[in-house]
Write a structure and sequence with these properties.
The protein has helices at residues 11-25, 38-48, 60-72, 91-96, 102-111, 144-153, 161-175, 233-238, 240-245, and strands at residues 53-58, 80-85, 114-126, 131-136, 139-143, 179-185, 191-195, 197-201, 223-228, 254-259, 261-266, 274-277, 280-299. By secondary structure, the chain is an alpha+beta fold. It starts with 10 loop residues before the first helix and ends with a strand.
Length: 300
């Protein structure tokens, strides 16, 4: 669990949460994260040791790290994952339609059969120039959205995830410039596109409730690639409501297609276009996104 998620976990609050979990699921072992990638390391260790069920208590970042750790251990077929939503964004929870309340989520995990879901695997350039590899379960993106995620993660979220992301979106609009990228989809001939942002969706929501990939399914063996073209700041502001409602795909600047693999790289070699994976920004383009069908078993 991430003790900093959902406004923080005091000792008394954790006692209540643990009691609700134990009442719904029975006695459990617990481990707190203290830094980024802790959840991935804990999940990899426990899955490699034969743990059959791992609960991710936190936001989208915690859930994503647990999934990455389970897959790193090669245990996607044997270790099941349960979600106890507690973060400010809750975008993967929205796709799964999981209950928000801890006791209800625990009861749901106890009674729900595990379902196979897809995952994404991304190879990207790290900020120190190396190559990084991570998995994601919800949405990956690059461009404007990843810059917003970086701002939102560095800001206060005491008024909720949606407010934090909206504020970060408006601040980033002032500084952002759209970029030219090369996109290669499923091995086809690469094409040049000027984009504000592009989202590679396994799930449907990101950014604190934006329905960026409204037709995505987490178990269909494919991504939904939604690319937002060369929109002006005024056009973005005018259409924010459509982003939350999922009707932005009707705009002429937006394209949508089902894919299994995407390679993206900047046209200008020195362009810094960050990559966002389930709300975290570990590196930048060039990057390759690949679907891993049925990679995980989730109690949802």
């Amino acid at each position: 669990m991430n003790p900093r998620s959902g406004g923080g976990l005091s000792e008394s609050r954790w006692a209540r949460v643990r009691g609700a979990l134990a009442e719904g699921l029975g006695e459990l072992d617990s481990a707190f994260t203290t830094a980024q990638r802790d959840a991935a390391a804990i999940a990899e260790r426990e899955a490699a040791g034969g743990r059959r069920l791992i609960l991710a208590l936190g936001g989208d970042g915690t859930i994503s790290e647990v999934a990455d750790g389970v897959l790193a251990a090669g245990a996607g077929a044997t270790t099941e994952i349960g979600l106890i939503p507690r973060g400010t964004g809750g975008d993967f929870r929205r796709t799964l339609e999981m209950p928000k309340e801890v006791a209800a989520a625990a009861a749901h995990i106890k009674n729900a059969p595990a379902r196979k879901v897809d995952a994404g695997r991304v190879r990207y350039r790290t900020f120190d120039g190396g190559e990084g590899v991570r998995h994601f379960v919800n949405v990956a993106s690059f461009g404007f959205s990843s810059a917003v995620a970086r701002r939102a993660n560095a800001s206060s979220k005491r008024f909720g995830g949606r407010i934090a992301f909206m504020a970060a979106t408006l601040r980033e609009l002032v500084a952002h410039d759209n970029q030219d990228v090369w996109l290669t989809v499923d091995g086809q001939e690469r094409r040049r596109r000027r984009v504000m942002m592009a989202a590679v969706g396994n799930g449907r929501f990101f950014g604190g409730g934006m329905k960026i990939c409204p037709e995505a399914h987490i178990d269909d063996g494919a991504f939904d690639l939604v690319a937002v073209g060369d929109m002006t700041r005024g056009q973005v502001i005018a259409n924010l409501g459509k982003l939350f409602g999922g009707t932005h795909i009707e705009l002429e600047q937006v394209t949508q297609e089902r894919i299994t693999r995407l390679h993206a790289e900047p046209v200008e070699a020195d362009a810094d276009i960050p990559v966002e994976l389930d709300g975290e920004t570990p590196g930048h383009l060039p990057a390759t996104f690949e679907i891993v069908p049925g990679a995980l078993r989730i109690r949802a």
